[in-house]
Amino acid sequence: MEVVIVPDAKAGGELIAEAIAALVRRKPEALLGVATGSTPLPVYEALAGTVRGGGVDVSRARICQLDEYVGLPAGHPESYRSVVLREVVEPLGLGEDAFMGPDGTAADVQAACEAYDRALGEAGGVDLQLLGIGTDGHIGFNEPCSSLASRTRIKTLTQQTREDNARFFDSLEEVPHHVITQGIGTILEARHLVLLATGEGKADAVAQSVEGPVSALVPASALQLHPHATVVVDEAAASKLKLADYFRATYAAKPEWQGL
Ligand code: F6R
Predict the structure, then answer these.
(1) Which of 68, 82, 138, 168 to mutate to test the pocket of ligand 1 (most atoms within 8 A of CB)?
(2) Which part of the chain is the Glucosamine/galactosamine-6-phosphate isomerase domain (predicted)?
(3) I want to staple 141 with a disulfide (CB 3.0 to 4.6 A). Which of 181, 184, 236, 260 is the partner?
(4) For a substitution probing ligand 1, which of 41, 133, 218 has the most ligand atoms within 8 Å of its CB?
């Protein structure tokens, strides 16, 4: 895994946006896996800026969702479908036809999970999956003790994650208990995993994921098993990494043409 320490969230966003733009220049129909939450917003902002400035043509790119709440009514502003359409798909000038995600309103949720997992493969697989990380080390909504081989399925959120996400709702009670998430095994099938973590609140989870043992207790540690995983962290999120200086030196010595 490559660890890149950036000064702040904006720099992280710009770096990852450029990696996505470079991918789309190489492969215009790339399938881009996106995360929701606060962390990836600087990526989407920077990428939309590059698109508006004519730096990349994303008109053939496709966007897919990592996870979704179960039971929020269709069109609810905090359903991840609505969030991804609002924060990624529309700013990039794409239409809904460029977007795929699991159906959190399905009567048969398990069937919806399996259908989505299959659809990702049938679409050719995810080229680049952007990830955030929970304070408890989750990726997607694979909470601690998720199987490292798991596929897209329904999960129950921990109280910690519901409290972390309550800021998007009027009250904690409104945060759904259940979600659909790509499994860790599903996520690991993406060709390139890019995890962005910013802020001191993520420092413990980052240190455990990058420098700790691979463990279902820390789902993001599964990135250590992936042949092309990049972890981009700001100084605050990097503050508990023992190897921070080594990571800085390695990235500083990297030839520019290698990209992320
Ligand atoms: C969201 C997701 C989650 C978030 C994580 C961090 O699609 O998959 O894993 O990335 O909960 O959320 P923020 O970025 O809001 O701290």
Answers:
(1) 138
(2) 10-225
(3) 181
(4) 133
